[in-house]
Write a structure and sequence with these properties.
By secondary structure, this protein is mainly alpha-helical. The protein has a single domain (6-88), classed as Arc Repressor Mutant, subunit A, CATH 1.10.10.10. 57% of the residues lie in helices and 11% in strands. The protein contains four helices and two strands; from the N terminus they run αααββα. It has helices spanning 6-16, 23-33, 40-52, 72-88, and strands at 56-60, 66-70. The protein has a two-stranded antiparallel sheet with strand order 1-2. Strand 1 and strand 2 form a beta hairpin. It is globular, with a radius of gyration of 13 Å. Residues 12-79 form the Transcription regulator PadR N-terminal domain. It comes from Halostagnicola larsenii XH-48.
Length: 91
């Protein structure tokens, strides 16, 4: 988790909170949270990095739309991060 950017960690949380979201659904959700609008040019390379790290699985919904889902490794890393955060911040 320490090799990820804050933005990439935020993407993991968004993906974890949705059921196999498309890139557009992730973009819409993250843009409700982040003050500076996120572009496709920022989103998709970061999603690809999470796929390369085997934290996120990328699959096809249809010919134009992909879905993203946490892998078991991604879920485990996110849970470990959450436990670490809760040691320092009241839940």
């Amino acid at each position: 988790m320490d090799q990820l950017t804050g933005f990439q960690r935020d993407l993991l949380y968004v993906i974890a909170g949705m059921d196999r979201p498309s890139g557009q659904q992730i973009l819409d959700d993250i843009n409700r949270y982040i003050d500076q609008p996120v572009t496709h040019g920022r989103l998709y390379p970061n999603l690809d990095t999470l796929v390369e790290f085997e934290l996120v699985e990328k699959g096809e919904i249809d010919r134009r739309t992909n879905y993203y889902a946490l892998t078991p490794k991604g879920r485990r890393i996110l849970e470990q991060r959450q436990e670490w955060i809760e040691r320092y911040v009241d839940a």
